[in-house]
Amino acid sequence: MENSNAGLEYWLQWQVLVCAIILLLSTAVAVLLLLRKRSSGERGCLNPADLWTPCWRNVHPRWLLFYRAFAFIAMAYLLYQTVATFGFFVFFFYTQWTFALVMAYFALATVVSFRGCRIYARRPLAQTVGRDKFLKKDSEDINFGKPSVSKQKKGKGFIKLEVHHNPTPNEQLGFLENLLQIIYQTCAGAVMLTDIVFWCLLLPFMTGTDFQLTLLIGCMHSVNAFFLILESALNRLPFTWFGLVYFVLLSCAYVAFQWVLHACCFTWWPYPFLDLSTPWAPLWYLALGLVHIPFYGFYVLLKKAKNAAFSRMFPQTFVRASSEKKQL
Fold first, then answer.
1. 181 closest CA partner among 288, 327, 32, 37
2. Angstrom distances, CA of residue 131 to CA of 58, 59, 119, 236
3. Residue 152 host element (H or E)
4. Nearest CA to 296 among 194, 195, 226, 192?
5. In 3D, which of 113, 166, 163 has the Cα closest to residue 137?
6. Around 238, how many Cα atoms within 13 Å sit in the side-chain half-sphere?
7. Contact at 8 Å (CB) between 322 and 142?
8. Ordered alpha helix ranges (H), 142-222
9. Residue 99 falls inside a structural domain
10. Which regions span the lipid bilayer (predicted)?
């Protein structure tokens, strides 16, 4: 869509100021929530093993590692083909931001899974009474941050007690582990927004001489959600509503990126609802901010449905995340 950005008159329109206020308020609220969480010391009860063990008992963590590595390679190949076909201009669109972020998640998850498999392989059998039982014990019997007492020997008139201290999960979490959880929650809302908006809203109005749906474009708007939903069906990562904050920050960063590019060199918007020349722009921007809630909530419902259905259908083999078990 063509727009004139040669003078200040475009940026001094009243709707531009209102849209800027909406954008700044959304960013400020998200940042304040992050700072409040950091200052309160609220970190949750994430068990490090939840990052690399499957949610299916007796399934070796290497299978989750293989899946994550395959997803990363497949998405990297698709992104390479897209850039080779259309050039780096594709990163002008929110789709490629989301796609690259999901790919980064699988790359980071592969690294974390590899490290986890090394921990799993080095775990002495004497401590776990079998490696498969280690996963069960780690997910069900661990007491976070509290001493656990076990009977070691019972003799004449005494009982020998061995006290173990299980450190809190957050003491063991490093930068990569925390970043993995953040990217996972950000990707969830982003793929729902990208793919649903493309297939249900944009595509019906884009058919014509200027746009043709190809297999590559179709894969770019579906493979990311497919791989991430399948990942959610396999992993034990908890999913909280607070991840909506990171999702909002990603979208605000993209809108700010578009504003800067449009002010400097571009004369058109990649999506019609970002156009600031129409008096309806404030309503579009307000709606754009509000739709983050249902799109993120849709993924929350998927996770809850997974836990409820698998717990009922496979009670002996399905394992919840440790933080989710503590909430029951």
1. 37
2. 9, 10, 11, 18
3. strand 147-154
4. 192
5. 166
6. 20
7. yes
8. 169-172, 175-197, 203-206, 215-220
9. yes
10. 12-35, 65-91, 97-114, 182-205, 211-230, 242-271, 283-302
List the beta bridge partners of residue 164. Answer: 148
The amino acid at residue 1 is M
Separation between Cα atoms, residue 168 and residue 3, nearest integer Å: 55
Residue 46 has a pLDDT of: 74
Residue 263's DSSP bridge partners are: none
> Running DSSP on this structure, what letter comes out for residue 201?
I
What tens digit of pLDDT does each residue of 266-303 get? 778 888 889 998 999 999 999 999 999 999 999 999 99
What pLDDT is attached to residue 303? 94
Which DSSP state fits 100? H
Q: Residue 257, CB half-sphere, CA atoms under 13 Å: how many?
A: 12
3-state SS assignment for residue 130: coil
- Given a contact cutoff of 8 angstroms between Cβ atoms, the answer to whether 231 and 68 are in contact is yes
Please give the biggest Cα pair distance in the chain. Answer: 93
Q: Is the pLDDT of residue 145 over 50?
A: no
What length does the chain have?
Answer: 328
Mean pLDDT, the chain, whole residue set: 83
Of the candidates 327, 215, 197, 160, the residue with the CA atom closest to the CA atom of residue 272? 197
Q: Is residue 221 part of a domain?
A: yes
Give residue 224's domain range.
Answer: 43-153+161-241+297-326
> Around Cβ 71, how many Cβ atoms within 10 Å?
24
Instruction: List 318's β-bridge partners, or say none.
Output: 56
Q: Report the domain count for the chain.
A: 1
**Contact present, 120 and 85 (Cβ < 8 Å):** no
34 falls within a domain: no
Q: Whole-angstrom distance between the N-terminal and C-terminal Cα of the chain?
A: 51
Q: What is the pTM (predicted TM-score) of this model?
A: 0.83
